[in-house]
Design brief:
With about 450 residues, the protein is of the alpha/beta class. Among the domains are: about 220 residues, 3-Layer(bba) Sandwich (FAD/NAD(P)-binding domain); about 100 residues, D-Amino Acid Oxidase, Chain A, domain 2. It is built from 13 helices and 18 strands. The protein has an 8-stranded mixed beta sheet with strand order 5-4-13-14-15-12-16-18, sandwiched between helices. The structure holds flavin-adenine dinucleotide. The site of flavin-adenine dinucleotide has 36 residues, from helix 1, strand 2, strand 8, strand 16 and helix 8.
């Protein structure tokens, strides 16, 4: 233990953000308790408290580095368990119906099934001698200390029929209950203001199905990803998640949701701007039925702007900021927030003011990328500042130029992987490379649809 901040820390929610927080708190508190409503210990499959985890999840560059730092050797452990890892720039990425040049970036991306990744992380956390998991317990509310200036614990109730609620005393309570977090309501009930909430409505849905991988299906790449752009708003993440299993998550915006029936799912795949995904999967063996997850809006809660916030309460992960998932940022940002928490605790400071302003800075750049990027879609409502308009027009040029210049793929992936801030794309040498290929915003890429079953039978 580096420094002792207190006897007991309680983490609400045992998903990725809660696990990262527990890992960090375990260095500074005698005992850490994770409270989770689902049964989670040893579980490697989907669960009701985290329905989004069925869908494609990539742990990208910076997040991967943070996770490896928290849990040394975990990358090898995942690889030994058959989890694909690969270079972020060497995947087959399409923007605006055009493939960007593959580039060796040295940035690792882990594409485990999300419940499996979580299970490996959880096993490491549960192994820590001073961490316990109170699973199948509902968090009810934090308990305020007399005077209301701080939180001194939390009330929880076992999920067993007729079980009574009880209070866990704590020096610090960390809310990692995800985007449905009740901290805004708890603050109000304790006499504090609710935080301002920024929302960008995207009306997004993921529909996902798993398939058995066939030899040659991916043609040597880890995944094939036609990403949604304003001219081609339907997207997909089609990737290997194990030795013989792959996942296809289709994405549709603004109510254009990928269907969950077999025919509709196939037809949506065929309507993607490039034929690569449909051609690889249309006659593959499906391992389950398509499942949909809807994501109405990205949301960011600005706790750091509140004048007053109770001591002894912190908020982390999606409870603070839930990003449009197509940018693949959430787990990485949660890991970076846990790193910020560790840095505060090492200074002996567990006060919310410092932590909340540190994590606001962690969130700023990825929020700019995703919330700003969403405003490039004309149907997404929101105020488009000059910075956002100019930035989006430039990124569209850069993505086009990256179809000719692999160095631009690398620059782009370093920002997407949260290794560099978005401003890195404005370095003079990068701007010069972009302008060499794209002085104006490029026109819509021409979709190349795969031949459907009828076209195939007509041509035979
Ligand atoms: C479709 C989709 C795809 C995504 N893809 C990616 C990706 O490719 N890469 C990436 O980095 N991120 C991705 N994300 C984001 C990522 O899933 C989250 O950012 C990440 O899971 C961190 O979430 P969290 O731990 O804060 O919250 P959650 O994962 O939502 O976990 C909250 C936990 O709290 C528990 N809980 C909630 N309320 C209570 C209560 N009252 N009592 C007890 N327990 C409670 C829940 O059971 C759950 O376990 C994606 C998200 C979605 C929706």
């Amino acid at each position: 233990m580096n420094s002792r901040n207190g006897a007991h820390a309680v983490v609400l929610g045992g998903s990725m953000a809660g696990l990262f927080a527990a890992r960090v708190l375990a260095e500074h508190y005698d005992q850490v308790t994770i409270v989770e409503r689902d049964e989670v210990v040893g579980v490697r499959g989907p669960r009701s408290g985290a329905p989004h985890t069925v869908h494609a999840h990539g742990l990208h560059a910076r997040g991967h580095l943070a996770v490896e730092e928290f849990f040394p050797g975990i990358t090898k452990e995942l690889q030994d368990a058959g989890i694909p890892t690969g270079d972020l720039g060497e995947m087959r990425w399409f923007f605006n119906a055009r493939r960007i040049q593959p580039a060796h970036t040295g940035l690792l991306s882990v594409t485990a099934p999300r419940p499996v990744l979580e299970a490996h992380v959880r096993a490491r956390v549960v192994d820590l001698p001073n961490v316990q998991v109170l699973q199948r317990h509902d968090v009810l509310a934090p308990v305020a200390a007399p005077g209301g200036g701080s939180v001194r614990g939390v009330t929880v109730r076992p999920r067993a029929e007729g079980a009574d609620a009880f209070t866990l005393d704590a020096d610090v309570v960390v809310d990692a209950t995800g985007r449905g977090s009740r901290t805004p309501a708890w603050l109000e009930a304790m006499g504090y203001k609710r935080p301002e909430e920024e929302r960008v409505r995207v009306g997004l849905a993921y529909t996902t199905r798993h398939y058995r991988t066939r030899p040659g299906m991916f043609d040597g790449v880890q995944s094939i990803n036609p990403v949604a752009t304003p001219d081609h708003p339907r997207g997909a993440f089609f990737g290997q998640v194990g030795p013989d299993t792959c996942i296809l998550s289709l994405t549709g915006l603004l109510g254009d949701h990928p269907p969950t029936d077999h025919e509709g799912f196939l037809e949506f795949t065929r309507s993607l701007p490039v034929p690569d995904v449909y051609e690889a999967m249309h006659d593959a063996e499906a391992l389950d039925e398509p499942v949909r997850f809807t994501f109405p809006a990205s949301q960011r809660r600005r706790y750091e702007r509140l004048d007053r916030f109770p001591s002894g309460l912190l908020v982390i992960g999606d409870a603070l900021c839930s990003f449009n998932p197509v940018y693949g940022q959430g787990m990485s940002v949660a890991a970076l927030q846990a790193t910020a928490l560790r840095d505060r605790l090492r200074k002996g400071d567990a006060e919310p003011a410092g932590f909340l302003s540190d994590v606001a800075r962690v969130i700023d750049a990825p929020w700019e990328v995703s919330a700003g990027g969403d405003l490039d879609f004309p149907g997404v409502e929101g105020h488009r500042t000059t910075k956002i308009r100019v930035g989006n027009a430039y990124v569209a040029r850069l993505q086009y130029a990256a179809t000719k210049d692999a160095r631009l793929t690398e620059a782009f992936m370093r920002v997407a992987g949260l290794m560099d801030p978005p401003t890195a794309l404005m370095r003079p040498r990068t701007v010069a490379r972009v302008l060499r290929h794209a002085v104006r915003r490029p026109p819509a890429g021409v979709a190349r649809r795969a031949a459907g079953p009828k076209d195939r039978s007509a041509s035979t």
